[in-house]
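## Example pair
The file below holds two records. Each record gives the amino-acid sequence first, followed by its structure token line.
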Amino acid sequence: MEKIKTLILGGGPAGFTAAIYAARANLSPVLYEGLQPGGQLTTTTVVENFPGFPEGVDANTLMDNMRAQARHFGADIRQGVATAVDLGVRPFRITIDNETQLEADALIIATGAQARYLGLPSEEKFKGSGVSACATCDGFFYRKRTVAVVGGGDTACEEALYLASLAKKVYMIVRRDVFRASRIMQEKVLSAPNIEVLWNCNTQEVLGDAMGVTGARLLRKDGTVFDIAIDGFFLAIGHTPSSALFKPWLKLDENGYILTEGKSAETCVPGVFAAGDVQDPRYRQAVTAAASGCMAARDAEKYLLEQVNA
């Protein structure tokens, strides 16, 4: 069984940043990239809001650079997915791909979260070409254009209001005849002059061509089918954090996000740390994920030093 000083699970901005800091601190990090190397960021195209890139940067290029930087400082980056963990023993025991057995003195969980989609083939077809699950990430590309937001909760309202500050028109596609959002968010949406709420509607198909999204086909509750012309289609129906594997050992909130202690990356299990979208239900940005990866590595460094001096 291989013994690892610092094991990092997840190859997105949080995981790679944790690897950079851990490697520079001589913590001998080993990082397994998981199911989606590069994380959710790789589902978009150009990232314009990551500091240091005035002209924007290709999402995959950004993640390739983070990976290369971590390797430059000595991080061991591998392919594989954690399939079992035992956080009740020391060192921690982790199984990769149902076969590789590892022991780790410190564990950083940066497994991310997956945006919920409708499951339409056409939605998958235009992902990254007009279909997005992050208005803050991609809204800038739709200035003075027409977009749609799917959802009726607070997140959907926030996304719609953000897009309304950029776009010419925003449709909100709501499957019921009421919002699930808080009263104040409802009032803000309903008072916005360029937001039109389409009640009792479900999306049948995302329409488009070789250039990307051109519209959406909707089905009303009364059976009416109609099309809307749009340039962008935004999903705001929630995220699912990749935390199920750790549920027996860690404290999670009601939506499955790993709870950390105060302003640290520490979990309820000493020596286990969480960073990025798996513990962040609010911001879900590459830059905040990277920052929390730094925090996790620094906290892991402090923990390991305390173990040596104990």
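Second record, same layout:
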Amino acid sequence: MTSPILLTGGTGTLGRLVVPLLRGAGRHVRVLSRRGHESEDGVEFMIGDLATGEGIEAAVDGVETIVHCAGSPKGDEDKTRNLVRAASRTAAPHLVYISVVGAERVPVVSRVDRAMFGYFAAKRAAERIVEDSGLPWTTLRATQFHDFILMTAKQMAKLPVIPVPAGVRFQPIDAGEVATRLVELSLGKPSGRVPDIAGPRVYGMNELLRSYLQASHRHRLIMPVRLPGRAARAYRAGANLAPQQAVGHRTWEDFLAERLHSGRQERGH
């Protein structure tokens, strides 16, 4: 195949890792972005907005595969619908979608659920749009990235007393490992829902936070807080985990040590 692969979310945490892997496989990459970027060898940037639909038809023209990595806390289903609508007017490209483990197991029914866990409902709604699109499709669900856990820990560490959701656990995975699997799927045949991909270990949120505080030489008081709602109850029961799919290799400890070390080097310490 010589046609370009269209990538949404190509400048995000996952997408920016997918680009060089696709290029390494000899594929031309077309990246849909809301902002203009200078194209480089084998990577073409096209301006478009999934939220409004502007520029999407031009971006999907002539592609045989779309890797849909664009994501946000809300509105994923609307953006996916706009992408599917434009893609359906072309030659039925293979649509590869990245979702989240637990999308169908975290019930988002109340206002409280939606405020804290609306991301899961949006991802599940987007999955259904992909499934019902009439396009050949593949969906991969992943657990939370190490990057997300680190960003959350950094934000929480700004507080003198840190409220930590009691009983909440995560199974973080390296974004690079997810990118590798996503590229494998994009270069293969449409496969529907494929097995989930999850990190090598399950951690309590307090364990993750304490390890960050210790590694960054911070001291904070941690206060457990029990979150209300059905979604939070499902989270405490492990709806966001996939221990049977612990195929990732890079641990949170390895990621944290490397990221903090590189941060110190950049600051000249």
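Notes on the second record: The longest strand covers residues 94-100. Residues 5-266 form a domain with the Rossmann fold fold (CATH 3.40.50.720).
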